[in-house]
Amino acid sequence: MTTHVVASSPHALFSPSSAHRWMRCAGSVGLESREPDTSSEFADEGTAAHALAALALTNGTDTAAYLGWIITVTHEPAAIANTVTERDFTVDAEMAGHVQVYVDYVRTLGGELAVEQALPIAHITGEIYACGSADAVIVDGDVLTIIDLKYGQGVMVEAKDNPQLQIYALAAMREFDYLGDFNSVRVAIVQPRRQHISEWTYTPAELEAFRPRCADASTRGVLALKYFDKHAEMHEKYLEPGDSQCKFCKAKATCPALAAHVLATVSDDFVDVSQPIAPQLEPTLARTFDNVTLGNLMSATDLIESWCKAVRAKGEAELLAGNAVPGFKLVQGRRGARKWADMTAAEQALKAMRLKVEEMYDLSLISPTTAEKLHKAGAIGPRQWPKLQTLVVQPEGRPSVAPDSDKRPALVVQASADEFDNVAELV
């Protein structure tokens, strides 16, 4: 078993990966600066996947060559605990298969490849010595390509108008300008766990038009930081709540602008605050609303739910740290499911009782997903797998609500007459 250690490097204040946030909400950088510098397991898993991709591309191998390897993601000492944190991830068939999709895509493009290319971005954001790291940069004549691996599956990401990739593109144009002029710059996002590859091509002039927008946003972010350092609070003029910028912001639980936005949305659309509710009556909706209002509310629910989740997590963190939160306390949760303290000892004891195999063990057939993993690992051969595939069925997905911007076509729903009760018969 081989262990590969990769360090999760600190980001620039105005990093390309968070440009979608600070370009929309200048105050987010200041508010995030007071939050603990922690990393989620999902983020660390993404770092491990990137390390696997770099190993394969750098060594000219496929990702399957690293099956069973342990990739350890380490972090700098935390500000509070002053300890180095780390997480281990085993390269299994699933991770290897997903990352191989990205590796194959990169290799199909040809040209001169640079892996995990460091790119100075100070000339774009104005932050001294700031750098970004592009997953892959390819130079092929007068065409420059920047490719970004997104290992997460929660949010589908597009290449068009993506500020992170635009910053990388501007930085790469300058970094490799000694090779000559570029006529086009292609940016691509490979998101294998969503079966999603997105590409877009810019002219150098289009990217240069983006530069002042980025510079203006970072300048505004610096002003917000200075205000925050001076007053220990953020002025509302620097805060702009929204789905994109708030989704992964570490400060959303304590952001005053987001809290005000959520409360205003709820109160404006549900309760007519100008009409006081009699104390002896149960609170009810003070007015009805049409589907236009309903649509406005639905568009806000993701942001509101995300805020609620962040507030709960912040409250729990404060209580676990021993800090009082008025009106709330920590209690013992429901006990977990019973389990054997020693599986081997329990198994031996049951065998001594002469129980039958079917009495001792819960046996169930593996799922198609597990079978596919065995196929990728070689346990199920290439001739055997097609036979299993003929036995797999996959039900159609149930209708679900999505915004108009979703790329999937809208379902046409037509109710038939027999779906309705005969009103005359009910009268």
Main β-sheet, spatial strand arrangement: 4-5-6-7-8
Structural class: alpha/beta
CATH architectural label of the domain at 3-231 = Alpha-Beta Complex
Main sheet attributes: strand count, strand direction, barrel closure:
5 strands, mixed
What oligomeric state do the depicted chains represent?
single chain
- Silhouette: globular
Q: What is the element string, with H for helices and E for strands?
A: EHHHEEHEHEEHEEHHHHHHHHH
Describe, in plain words, how this protein is organized in 3D.
It is a single chain. This protein is an alpha/beta fold. Among the domains are: 3-231, Alpha-Beta Complex (Lambda Exonuclease, Chain A); 252-276 and 288-318, no CATH class. The chain is built from 15 helices and eight strands. The chain has helices at residues 19-22, 28-32, 41-59, 93-109, 122-125, 163-175, 204-231, 243-246, 256-270, 291-320, 343-352, 357-360, 368-377, 384-389, 423-426, and strands spanning 3-7, 70-74, 86-90, 112-120, 131-140, 143-149, 184-191, 196-202. The strands form two sheets. It has a five-stranded mixed beta sheet. It has a three-stranded mixed beta sheet with strand order 1-2-3, with helices on one face. Strand 5 and strand 6 (143-149) form a beta hairpin. Helix 6 packs across helix 7 and helix 9 packs across helix 10 (291-320). The radius of gyration is 27 Å and the shape is globular.
